[in-house]
What does this fold into?
Amino acid sequence: MTDPSAGPPTVHETPLAARHEALGARMIEFAGWRMPVQYTSIMDEHRAVRERVGLFDLSHMGELWVEGVEAAAALSAALVSDPAHLAVGRAQYSMICAPDGGVIDDLIVYRLADDRFMVVANAGNATAVSDALAERLVGTGAVLDDHSLATGLVSVQGPRSVDVLRSLTDVDLDGLRYYAVADGEVAGIAAQVARTGYTGEDGFEVFVDWTRTGDLWDALAERVAAVDGRPVGLGARDTLRLEAGMPLYGNELDRDTTPYDAGLGRVVKLDKPGPFVGRAALEKVAADGPTRRLVGLVVEGRGIARHGHPVHAGERRTGIVTSGTHSPSLGRPIAMAYVAPADAEPGTVLDVEIRDARVPARVVPLPFYRRST
Amino acid sequence: MTVPTDLRYTPDHEWVRLDGDEVTVGITQYAADQLGDIVFVELPDVGRSLERGKPFGVVESVKAVSDLFAPVPGAVTAVNEALASGPELVNSDPYGEGWMIRLSVADGAELDDLLDASAYDAIVAAG
It folds into this structure.
């Protein structure tokens, strides 16, 4: 039985959906959004980003603005990092945790002004983060304004990304350091330009008004094409972030995972003053050590160890694969997995269970790929 | 999309080429395109007997993994060794260099159940 009054769930479209289709992209539903998974091929798009430049539509991401004279203090109490110590024009990787220390989402926090922050959340978690932040800001002087459906986001990633952006913007790109953000114009459109990304390459994320996203994309696409770059879909976005050892919420991170499990304890600022949500639980994990650790695996052969495949140490089951792919840069299968701390040392040889076969896999330090410059 | 008219097909997007009492089996261009960049093809040992409709191998792309099903019963007489080091041949030439296995088929009548090009084309067109 189906409820005739219940229509299909709303699937959002970014302002660029028609452009993706005109480019021949294969579209999929991802986190409630219709998004391009690939335009030409994942390998081709991946290599374009590693060698030249790629253009990404990230307008599905959530942009949550937190404003007011108490914004810094309120965010410091809501998140595990310390936004109060973030300089204006700088960004930090952060997480919002539940009281038990489980990760609600991983975030990037940009300080746009003394009393104004932009918190960027994953598309699939934007509502959960917005709700949690709203609740945590009650009684503070800070207010939350959800700009997610008013903000378009286009990212340019790769060694040529500076060349692509330079002639289009008044922002001083040479002065814009990694994890910095500046107000300016791109192609005549008011924008926040951030030197951040999710690929392991140099790159920029450009936030504009939703209605100007198409104009921004068109201007950038022309420059990207001029240096033989490519539009890049979610497929290569995943292989790029995996090579760079970056976690994906839903794979490496979830409500049952603490930042320490994921090897991201450095994000948690236990030495910051005052309470924050999750502090007691996270102090205990920090003191006792996590019960499992995220590791990189290089898998023998050509078969891919994928999300959910078991990992064994001899006859003992030690953990589970969280993400796996064929690494275009290494030319072989790679994976990330949670394993028992005793099995997490680089050099350890474990077995991954791939379709009933046990395939040897060696623990390696993350990331799998680091850019040369 | 046009599919070669000299081949037979299965609804699982495999093609079959009749060659005397042997058949050659691969996956269609449509299947290869849907999978995207193919990075691994797992094939059976020569000599193994295959039952119709049962999995005999795996084709894996960056994005997804998919079983290969025996389109007809028979014994494996050859596998395409070139795919071990060059699985991308399935993307670039699915009906030629990207072939997967050869089977000896005892009863040629089994082929009558396979689709012709126009019937397969209709399946692809219907999405």
Chain A has eight helices and 20 strands. The interface with chain B takes residues 37-38, 41-43, 235, 239, 301-304, 306, 325-326, 328, 333, 355 of chain A (CB under 8 Å). Residues 213-226 of chain A form the longest helix (14 residues). Chain A has two domains: 9-289, 292-373.
